[in-house]
Design goal:
InterPro entries: Glyco_hydro_beta-prop_sf (IPR023296). By secondary structure, the chain is an all-beta fold. The protein has a single domain, classed as Glycosyl hydrolase domain, family 43 (Tachylectin-2, Chain A). It has two helices and 22 strands. The strands form five sheets. A six-stranded antiparallel β-sheet has the order 2-3-4-5-1-22, with no helix packed on it. A hairpin with a 5-residue loop joins strand 10 and strand 11. The model has no long low-confidence stretch (mean pLDDT 95).
């Protein structure tokens, strides 16, 4: 398996991001020096090098890379900064088949900790063997990355299941047909959270049962340029998630003044990776807690789904302004958005927190110049 990565596009993107050469989905971000917004997403080319198209459903047959965009005007326009990280194809490492989503967060010393999902290159039937991986970056390039996974369901099967997580039997880890009548392995999308004591927490997509989506939680210790898992907490389930088979892309933000933690997640009821997006119920949810350890409660007594975000999935908070009680956000459109906007980015929108209200501009087509 080989990979072609498009160079930076010279275009400036406004009213969202509709890249001429790339399908884009999932989002994570951080605010850099000078209030520059740094946005990252998964990406694959829209066409193979011979010119034949790669459709949205064919993405999993092509290695992904992480695309980087930057904005100096609070998301009004975006610049393509190229690839941040790509799989190490042919090297027999935990990220040699492809890479999936994660997060990036500045550390107290100014380095950026990149957490991402690596997939083993095993065989055609076990093509979704996921691992939690870490790397150090300046936001534009990877400076160093581990050759070993921080947490690996194959290597660490007993420790993971002893902590209460659901995994298929070791020989079935990553099977394309799913696990126990449910969807594929969930051990992905790590989100970095630095607490008030500068401790590094990771939260990720996991399972508490074959069809029970959950959030993983671990405490990470840094030792120089290396990292190790210090503690694995039990899985976290959401109180209104009875039909949630996959809880993905969890992100946590803290309003220190009010003592409130906000958990934003992307959930769906997928059973089979071959299901088209049109058959799925994809939802962006908001939960609140007074503690990083939970319990989490829906923002609304009627449920945690955020209104007005239909057709969007895997959002990120670009800037959290807790003084104003407002989150500046962006999200990709799902593949159900069709050829015009599917697998592109929406314009920026705001989520007000007190009371919760979503203000999203109407779609008029992403532009470039």
């Amino acid at each position: 398996m080989s990979q072609y990565i498009h160079p930076k596009s010279p275009q400036t993107f406004t009213n969202g991001i509709r890249h001429p050469d790339l399908h884009l989905w999932d989002a994570w971000s951080f605010v850099g020096d000078g209030d520059v917004l740094h946005l990252y997403s998964l990406a694959v080319p829209k066409a193979r090098q011979d010119g034949t198209p790669i459709t949205g459903p064919e993405r999993n047959d092509t290695p992904f890379h992480v695309r980087h965009f930057s904005s100096h005007d609070l998301g009004a326009s975006w610049t393509d900064e190229g690839s941040l990280i790509a799989p190490r194809i042919g090297q027999g490492l935990p990220d040699s088949r492809t890479i999936w989503s994660g997060s990036i967060e500045p550390l107290p010393d100014g380095k950026k900790l990149l957490a991402y999902t690596g997939l083993y290159a095993l065989d055609a039937e076990h093509c979704f063997a996921q691992n939690i991986m870490l790397a150090l970056s300046d936001g534009y390039e990877v400076e160093s990355r581990e050759d070993e996974a921080l947490i690996c369901p194959i290597r660490d099967w007993k420790a993971i299941t002893d902590a209460g997580y659901y995994l298929a039997p070791p020989d079935d880890i990553g099977h394309r047909g799913g696990e126990g009548g449910g969807p594929i392995l969930a051990w992905r999308d790590p989100f970095v959270f630095i607490d008030a004591d500068d401790q590094i927490h990771l939260f990720w997509s996991a399972k508490a049962g074959p069809r029970v989506g959950a959030m993983g939680h671990g405490l990470v210790r840094r030792e120089g340029r290396r990292f190790r898992l210090e503690k694995l907490y039990p899985p976290v389930t959401i109180p209104d998630g009875n039909d949630v088979t996959q809880l993905e892309l969890p992100k946590i933000y803290h309003d220190a003044r009010r003592g409130t933690y906000y958990l934003i997640s992307a959930t769906c009821n997928r059973i089979d990776e071959r299901q088209p997006d049109e058959e799925l119920s994809k939802t962006i949810r908001l939960h609140l807690s007074s503690s990083l350890d939970g319990p989490w409660r829906p923002w609304n007594p009627e449920g945690s789904a955020l209104p007005g975000l239909e057709g969007l999935f895997g959002m990120t908070v670009l800037e959290a302004d807790f003084d104003r009680g407002s989150l500046l956000c962006i999200a990709p459109y799902t593949g159900a958005g069709g050829d015009e906007r599917g697998l592109t980015f929406s314009p920026c929108y705001r989520i007000d927190l007190d009371p919760v209200r979503v203000s999203i501009p109407s779609y008029s087509g992403a532009e470039s110049g």
